[in-house]
Amino acid sequence: MKSTLVPHPLTKREVEQLAGEFAMSDLTLPFWGYRKKMPMHRIVRLEGEGNYTLFHFADGSQLMVSLTLKKMESRLSSKVFVRPHKKNIINLLYLEGIYPGEQLCAGLINGDRVEVSRRKASRFIKQVKGFQQELKTMDSFSPIA
Question: What are phi and psi of 98, to 5 degrees?
Fold first, then answer.
């Protein structure tokens, strides 16, 4: 059963357009001996694994960096990125649907399902509703139905 919170998933073009609207800058990530800039709007979700964070990108690629999820959370845009569970942060631009059941799950357009912790469920729903409202109020954004 799918929730009605997400009327339709955003297209790649809409994500690119909204990245400009939300002023999503590039994210500088540390690598072995150098730093690399990654476009923040191409991150679908981040997954915490101890002292490391695994990035899942829209093109299907993954990247692990040696920073905790908590440190990464502070570097991300709070308008677009939410933390529904202690192990994951998701990008609302890639939200496909919310699936209720025994355990609430957020479905992403890449096919991933992320559990929403019981303690964070009501806050997560409020964040999604707020994000959807903000999309509706944007003058220059006109989603394709």
Answer: -120, 125
Number of domains in the chain: 1
| Tens of pLDDT, residues 28-81 | 887 777 888 888 889 999 999 999 999 999 999 998 998 899 999 998 988 899
Domain that holds residue 102: 12-137
The two beta strands, 26-31 and 34-39, are antiparallel
The CATH number covering residue 24 comes to 2.40.50.1020
94 assigned to some structural domain: yes
Classify residue 21 by burial, with Cβ atoms within 10 Å: 0-12, 13-18, 19+: middle
DSSP type of residue 11: P
CA dist., res. 26 & res. 40, Å (int): 5
Q: Where are the alpha helices (DSSP H) in 6-107?
A: 12-21, 69-75
pTM value is 0.84
